[in-house]
Amino acid sequence: MQADWRLTEIERARVADLMAMLPPQAGTAVDIGARDGFISMALADRGVSVTALDLEQPAIHDPRITCVKGDATALDFADGSFELVFCAEVLEHIPSVLLETACAELARVARRHLLIGVPYKQDLRLDRSTCSNCGKTNPPWGHVNRFDEKRLSELFAGCRIAQTSFVGQTSEVSNFLSTRLMAAAGNPYGTYGQDEPCIHCSAALATPVARTLADRCLDQSCRAGP
């Protein structure tokens, strides 16, 4: 069954944009972070022989797709195994200390093309959550890395950028004071519905309990700020 978020306007636009950037005649591809197989099946529909990889072996029941369990930081493939390495909505979740290793692995197994999709200049101070288990702060949607052109060029220094595209836009930003006030209020507007667990203790993030009057006052102070 297709996940509801796949039907949102921004998700449809994101996938369409990625598909439009596919190189012609990419005979073989690995889909890094395949999850539900939505992208893997879209690639297969375009005649690509697809290997779908995730930390847990994907359960994609499609004879055109080979499902494997694997880690982007240590890919069990020979150099240049795939004409296309497809990696979208993954690198922002990789622990920062392993990010360079993961990017080097993607480049290593790509014979010709890398197609990378990441959030652009995301303000990771927005929509933070507070873990009810350990009390520590989490970034939105488990995103621990921020990207722009310079950062991507550094991470894929041995590659030539052939095309860049952008989907959607936002004007939302935060600041030091708002971030501190929101944290003091318990980060009530965080992304608690996300699948990703706490980055500190791996517990599932739970919606905060009812807030006190003091919490609500802090919240209003934050929302009234610049």
Q: So what's the overall shape?
A: globular
Secondary-structure-derived class: alpha/beta
Helix/strand order, N-terminal first: HEHEEEHEEEHHH
Give the biggest beta sheet. 5 strands, parallel
Overall mean pLDDT = 90
Helix content: 25-40%
What does this structure look like?
- It is a single chain.
- The protein folds into two domains: about 1-120, 3-Layer(aba) Sandwich (Rossmann fold); about 125-140 and about 170-225, no CATH class.
- About 25% of the residues lie in helices and about 15% in strands.
- It has helices at about 10-20, 40-45, 100-110, 150-155, 175-185, 215-225; strands at about 30, 50-55, 65-70, 80-90, 110-115, 130, 135-140.
- The strands form two sheets. The chain has a five-stranded parallel β-sheet. The chain has a two-stranded antiparallel ribbon with strand order 6-7.
- The protein is globular.
